[in-house]
Amino acid sequence: MKTRFVRDHGLTARMTLTMFLLGALFVGVIVGLMLAVNSPGLALVIGLVGLGIAWYQWFNSDKIALRAMRARVVAPHEAPELHAMVDRLCAMADMPKPVVAIAYTDLPNAFATGRSPKHSAVCVTTGILDRLTVDELEGVLAHELSHVAHRDVMVMTLASSAAIITGMVLRGAGYGGLGMLGGRRGNNNGVPAWLLVLVLSIVVYAASFLAIKLLGRYRELAADRAGAFLTGKPSALASALTKISGQMSAIPQRDLRAAQPLNAFFIAPAVSGVSLRTLTSTHPSLEQRLEQLAKVGAELGRPLDGGFPTTGPGR
């Protein structure tokens, strides 16, 4: 589906490479399981179960994400201004309108999810509605809609599924769930089957983790750029990102921890301060994002002068 969002061939290449690597890793772990358990039938069952879980998460990704945030789908009469903004942006981008939802939390954030532009949802929190001006919120929504149009949200969903599946294998091995396979040793090398499965799981999980991080950082920059070009107001998005990042330190840690499973999908990660978690974040730094938006402003003839709107009518 073609839209009016700026195309990013670098993003397309990274998504293709991510899917290829994850597919190759999945095949590799199934072959490894076959060698480890010495039972092709059992390994095939494990593989089918894994594929079933991935299919379920992909098919229901929008519902799962909204449920995780305790978000509620809102009709146009319940949030007329929000729907009008999404309608206008979708018309500008020439794309189908996604489901619109609101999560009732003070955490200032937004995300998009779904398996395709026709089966997607965009969600904003009450925290972000309370803090941003109309122009800033429009910039955030344009950013999220570009994720849907570029289909990178679908790739991130599948990549997350791969990490979840291998994480389940890891937990099973850690709790002895594969102990019945560990009684035997490999054919000739004397390596316990459970140990081989554990090593394979760690390798696949690490690869999935890195794929999510690397793709996540690039896709956020691509969405910032595409959203800013669509609205023609890069300074509004820059202001929104500055506000959101600055407000994270005021959110209770328990709320940040509860939201962290969706960090890869948020417009800004639910973390505060600088730590190992921020260094391995799925998002580029705020400085990188503001620098890119400044370049977009220069291209549009509207350079960012640092005068971000800090006051004005909120939602």
Molecular structure report:
The chain has 315 residues and is α+β, with helices and mostly antiparallel strands. The chain is 63% helix and 7% strand. The chain has 13 helices and four strands. It has helices at residues 9-37, 40-59, 61-68, 80-93, 126-131, 134-150, 152-174, 179-182, 193-231, 234-247, 253-259, 276-279, 286-300; strands at 71-73, 99-103, 110-116, 119-125. It has a four-stranded mixed beta sheet with strand order 1-2-4-3, sandwiched between helices. The radius of gyration is 21 Å and the shape is elongated. Mean pLDDT is 79; it is low at 173-187, 275-279 and 306-315.
Mean of residue pLDDT values? 79
Strand content: 5-15%
Helix content: 55-70%
Low-confidence stretches: 173-187, 275-279, 306-315
Oligomer type = single chain
Strand-pairing-aware structural class: alpha+beta
- Taken from the alpha-carbon principal axes, the silhouette is elongated
Total strands: 4
Strand order of the largest sheet: 1-2-4-3
Q: Tell me about the largest β-sheet.
A: 4 strands, mixed
What is shown here, in short?
With 315 residues, this protein is of the alpha+beta class.
Write the layout of secondary structure elements.
Blueprint: H1 9-37, H2 40-59, H3 61-68, E1 71-73, H4 80-93, E2 99-103, E3 110-116, E4 119-125, H5 126-131, H6 134-150, H7 152-174, H8 179-182, H9 193-231, H10 234-247, H11 253-259, H12 276-279, H13 286-300
Parallel strand pairs: 2-4
Antiparallel strand pairs: 1-2, 3-4
